[in-house]
Design goal:
mainly alpha, Arc Repressor Mutant, subunit A, Tetracycline Repressor, domain 2, 2 domains, globular, transcription, HTH_TetR, DNA-bd_HTH_TetR-type_CS, Homeodomain-like_sf
């Protein structure tokens, strides 16, 4: 369970992120926004800003994403179908990161529009992939490292496709978008699975 200090830290980080995104919108992009502006608008000192983020691009992306501790523990201890448990873990991750749909769309748009924001975002996704690979390795201790790494990568790629589909209006909500992405991932897995020698084309 998170402490009061941790909750306050997350709240301040979220306020800085929301301020950075809002200023980028109001000023027609991130290029004319400075860390000093973000700090002043959020009501904190520049020094406090740098206690949270290294630059304005990092502020836009926000706190490094992670899986909720309880959901991660349930996944590691789970004995159900791996695919279903991975999807449940991704749903918990989406629920944790979800905030104002309009703000999330702006974040994704800034990620696509600004290479520096994209690099920060991609770095955080690599950290998240490593975290997920660690959880998968804990659950499947005897699996080959390549299997673990590829499974983590594909899981997060399904999440990315869901986010992009939702951002582009192909899905009204994140939940159905993840359902579609997960169905597609399952279909892809079946396409590359070894064919049954007795089946047509096998």
């Amino acid at each position: 369970m998170s402490t009061l200090r941790e909750r306050r830290r997350r709240q301040t980080a979220r306020e800085l992120q929301e301020t950075a995104i809002r200023l980028a919108r109001e000023r027609g992009g991130l290029d004319t926004v400075t860390t000093e502006m973000i700090a002043a608008e959020a009501g904190v000192s520049v020094r406090t800003f740098f206690n949270y983020f290294t630059n304005k691009e990092a502020a836009v992306v926000g706190d490094p994403p992670d899986f909720p501790q309880e959901a991660a523990a349930r996944f590691v201890a789970g004995r159900g179908a791996l695919s279903a448990d991975l999807k449940t873990l991704m749903q918990a991750h989406f629920a944790r990161m979800a905030f104002s749909p309009a703000l999330l769309r702006e974040l994704l748009a800034l990620t696509h529009a600004h290479p520096k924001v994209r690099r920060v975002h991609d770095g955080m996704l690599r950290d998240l992939r490593d975290r997920l690979a660690g959880l998968i390795e804990e659950r499947l201790s005897s699996r080959d490292p390549w299997t673990v790494a590829l499974l983590a990568t594909l899981t997060l790629e399904a999440g990315r496709l869901a986010l992009d589909a939702w951002k582009d209006g192909e899905a009204a909500e994140l939940g159905p978008a993840l359902d579609r992405a997960w169905d597609t991932l399952t279909e892809v897995a079946s396409l590359v699975a070894p064919a049954d020698p007795g089946a047509p084309g096998g």
